[in-house]
Amino acid sequence: MVKARRLATKRGGELRIAFEGETITAFEGETLASALLAAGVAAFSLTRTGEPRLPFCNMGTCFDCAVRVDDRELVRACLTDVREGMRVRRQEVK
Ligand code: FES
Fold it and tell me: Which residue owns the Cα nearest ligand 1 atom 3?
């Protein structure tokens, strides 16, 4: 029987970002999508009917993880590394 082996990893330094005005703790080297999901964010954006949207592909093709970062629209959270002081808001559906 083959057994899975857990690799030792070292987490990056702690940093702070803001999502919808709330402070979230993240770690250097994480993607924004990982940090938001780990913090329990339940919707990266809302559809026109108010349904939550969350990452689907996690590799940059679906845009379901789109958020606004420092007033830049349609930033794919799954392709974006966190950095200290990021201001993140839900992407508005127009
Ligand atoms: S989760 Fe699909 S583009 Fe980010």
Answer: 60
- The answer to the question of residue 9 being in a domain is no
Which of 32, 36, 63 maximizes ligand 1 atoms within 8 Å of its Cβ, making it the mutation to test the pocket?
A: 63
Task: Tell me the two tokens of residue 94.
Answer: 């127009």
The verdict on the CB of residue 93 being under 6 Å from ligand 1 is: no
Number of domains making up the chain: 1
Which domain, by its residues, includes 25? Answer: 14-90
24-61, pLDDT tens digit by residue?
999 999 999 999 999 999 999 999 999 999 999 999 99
The residues, ordered by sequence, that sit 6+ positions from 28 with a Cβ below 8 Å of its Cβ are: 12, 13, 15, 82
Q: Is residue 2 part of a domain?
A: no
C-alpha atoms less than 13 angstroms from C-alpha of 19 in its C-beta half-sphere: 21
Distance, in Å, from the CA atom of 54 to the CA atom of 48, rounded to the nearest integer, reads: 15
Structural domain contains residue 51: yes
